[in-house]
Amino acid sequence: MIYRETGQFKTSYAADQQIFPIRQDRVGIGILLAVAFLVVPAVAGNYWFNAILIPFLIFSLAALGLNILTGYAGQLSLGSAAFMAVGAYAAYNFQVRVEGMPVLLSFVLAGLTAAGVGILFGLPSLRIKGFYLAVATLAAQFFIVWCLTKFPYLSNNSSSGVISVPGVEILGFKFDTPASRYLLVLSIVVALALLAKNMVRSSTGRAWMAVRDMDVAAEVIGIRLMRTKLLAFAVSSFYCGVAGALYAFCYLGSVEPDGFSLDLSFKILFMIIVGGVGSIMGSFLGAAFILLLPIFLDISLPALAGLLGLPFDGATVSHIQLMVFGALIMFFLIVEPHGLARLWQIGKEKLRLWPFPH
Amino acid sequence: MARQIGDVILDLRNISLSFGGVKALTDISFDVREHEIRAIIGPNGAGKSSMLNVINGVYHPQQGEIIFQGAHRKDMNTHEAAAAGFARTFQNIALFKGMSVLDNLMTGRNLKMRCNFLQHALWWGAAKREELAHRRKVEEVIDFLEIEHIRKTPVGRLPYGLQKRVELGRALAAEPSMLLLDEPMAGMNVEEKQDMCRFILDVNDQFGTTIVLIEHDMGVVMDISDRVVVLDYGKKIGDGVPDEVKNNPEVIAAYLGTQH
Q: Per the domain annotation, does B218 fall within a domain?
């Protein structure tokens, strides 16, 4: 019953190329999806949906988007939050301005709008690399947030750019309970994660990784650098845009441009660094780590203080929480610079050989 | 050998290349015949790698003509060169370190794949069929180079000699009509060199691939190449069959030095 592929022989390339070649992985993912779709909605309360599960899924999607760009195509970006903002405001505008626009279609259009903006701000990547590109993408971050505040048209003339989104309704069904919104977000995130996985294991993904690992060799093979990089920007921004639309429509309900600040971009970047750069699963692990750890510390620190009989006030707890959080990030990066996804992979490799050392 | 050396397929005429004031290549002309193994030799800094870069479009020479299979290709870019059937390896291994051997070889066939990213995302129908068809082709190369056991290993974990072999595999996966090898045997031990020689000769023999290679090991060059061109300080100082080149006084002078 342990994680071991012994005896699972592949007799065709199709069997070897499937998405999860090892049976235990297939079973594991099946169970995980069953729990997420069937068990969680039945047992979780509103606090869990609103404060933990929905934001976790939305940030996983944004992290996935950034991971496609940074982890797979090797283009460092600090503009993820801005592309989320584009998605949120685009979905809002499509909803408000087009009569009878289906919500899902407006999410897709929001993603496409973000993709267009992403391509525009991805153009510098054709000339500059690495940290310099990161600085160039800062332009997107500041410019887009400024635009959304400056032009009242984009927020339908509301004061200071705050938008309150209409409720989500698909085919007459109102997604007004947290559980229903959770299922909607979960379905979208699972579908997009599957599409991303398929892209990165096909020649699209190989072209991205080739550009990331050795762009000169990629060029000599005949990969067009411009097209490949811009496609990565487009797909990445599409994912961030959809995440932004979900952030506004299914999580907060009303958003303002300043909510999509550089802080949020950094948060998403930290998610993929902690989770694992160049890993679909790492995006989810990183989002869980960055979002859940503070909540966990919030709950466990006062409890721990109470146990030790130390007099803690609220401010001290939040200071200690920040320090512990920072220390834990450093600890993980020192222990495993390639992120939680790599830890998971090493664990799996060890399990395959267990109980033998090698 | 069964192969028949054919007509000239690559003709380089009066190539001159300079970077600012530095003249890398001066007025070099030579040709490559179909199915032959053509070696470029010369001391360090002679312009050998620049010559390869000119051939597959990385550098654009200021003067001269490149005629490949009857077409003038002076200003072609690397994409056009790859599409025309050039594949190459690099002096310092330029594999995609984060990817497995299999993925590296599959990337070599990137140009032959027609599906777009939306089809890839759905992994259905044409995209899946294409992926499997190319996998089959890549497995032939894996079989040919005897690297079955490492096909799923990330290339960063492989020893140097094997990485060189994988890089040859990535070039072969593209089914090139002309293979450019930049020091395929640099840094290898005798055994690895023998293997590599065998692979190069087999590629040439079985697939009829025309090969242009740069190599410093004179024993290897003289044994496997049909014709040799010698460069020194960006100028051509010798051209011909190995025996001819070996006895060329200018070549001897460039390599061993002369008493003035």
A: yes
